[in-house]
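Standup, Tuesday
Yesterday: got the pipeline producing structure tokens again.
Today: sanity-check two examples.
Blockers: none.

Example 1:
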Amino acid sequence: MENASKKLTANQRSLAHLSAFHALLDEKDIMLVYCGEFSQELNKTLLAFTERKFKAENLEDNTRRKIFNIMVELLQNISKNKIENLEGTPEVSAIFMLGTNEEDYLLLTSNMIKNDKIPPLKERLDQVNSLDKEGLKNLYKDARLNATFSETAGAGIGIIDIARKSEKKLIYNFEKINDKFSVYSLLIKVSK
């Protein structure tokens, strides 16, 4: 009988952690969190959920479209660039979060990346962040016409499109896991 009460206590502690997590989500105004395997089917589900939520909240159409389009690009990037679990590959789950603060809607992704992909990606992110609205427009046109931004080079036309739609600088980080892999995190802000 004593063993059963210890198990119950352990389960109750787990539920207390869940309650604390829920409180944190409420406190930080996080609407959606997904951690795990991403696929086209899951992406459709996440997008449909977000669309329904924003319609229910009567979010302005222009803002809703911006967030939706950015979300599509971010989720596709996670799905397309996932690293298969090969022997010796660290297990780091990809994450997508959608939340708000007083001024912005926040879209955050985090996924594993090969270290050799970081320099060209960082270069592209820095280039995009260095441009104003007109510069992004011209870069987007150039990329569309000349295919100067290759998806395999680390950051394609999607990263330009995200910057154009968000109208804010992209915030990113690379955290090294080992000699082969890092975790790439990207935060996008869209004004309310």
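Example 2:
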Amino acid sequence: MKFNTQEDAIFYTPIWMADIDGVDNISLKEYTHSLRSKSPGTIISNRGGWHSSETPEPYPQSLIDLFGNIENFANTHCSEITNINDLAIGNWWININGKGNYNRIHDHQNSILSAVYYVDVPSVDTGNLVIHRDDTAEYFLKQYKNKSAFSELTRQLVPVTSRMYIMPSWTKHSVEQNKSNTERISIAINLISKKEL
């Protein structure tokens, strides 16, 4: 008996990771601390920590350069899978999570792709980015969960200074509690169609 087969991954959820060389993280860190000193921030998915509520111009050149390169990455590298190459930075914000801080499960609405860039991760236990499966598979895979990419229910992504992750904006995700005595600084970015700017 012979099986003539082919496989296809439908409704695919890609996660892109890039370690970015040449970013002036010192300038970005100074900028984030300056913003925090001027604003109490807001609460969205964050529990504790500081989530920027406004990001007034002028922006440092280091941020402008980073955003330009992320747009280019999304419209060239990511478009090999998405077939979408007209994306631009929509909204963005800064997260500073200290000891005990975390982010509840959420997604990023009104965008196509969402990115997180890690400005400063000074310790290994500042809290992983956790990707959550968003279907009912957990009820079917009880004895098989996490045996493979097919059956896993969550995926842990490790934060590292100068690392970026990009995912579809509807991907459910959370951030684990920071168990260190240090602060992790990240920039969250939503990419939207240029027609919506």
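Quick observation on example 2: The domain at 19-196 is CATH 2.60.120.620 (Jelly Rolls). The helical segments are 25-38, 61-82.
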